[in-house]
Give the backbone structure.
Amino acid sequence: MLNDWLFVGIFFVVAMFLPAAAITIAGFLAPKKPNPIKNSTYECGIETVGPAWIQFKAQYYVFTLVFLVFDVEMVLLFPWAVAYNQMKLFAIVEGVLFVLILLGGLVYAWKKRALEWV
């Protein structure tokens, strides 16, 4: 039992040490030639005019969320599709039900015009 926790502890120490070592080594080896242009704020290479805080349409967020839902759907369905030949009927019915629920969400988003880029 103690040996199992010893491996977890070693893994934890290594997981903390490697990123810290990489950041420290990069800090020593990186060239340091600061100037006012390099130290200025960078926003897409264009100087800001007026206030930098502007409101975005909520539609952009809805579009992103719809994309995220269907992206996660693909991640969940890929292992299901790979093991399709080895599944029992219950697992296939669950997969089809999952796809139908997401298809219902797609139809709902389509009817609400959430997928139109305006």
About this structure: The longest helix spans residues 2-29. The mean pLDDT is 83. The chain is about 70% helix and 0% strand.
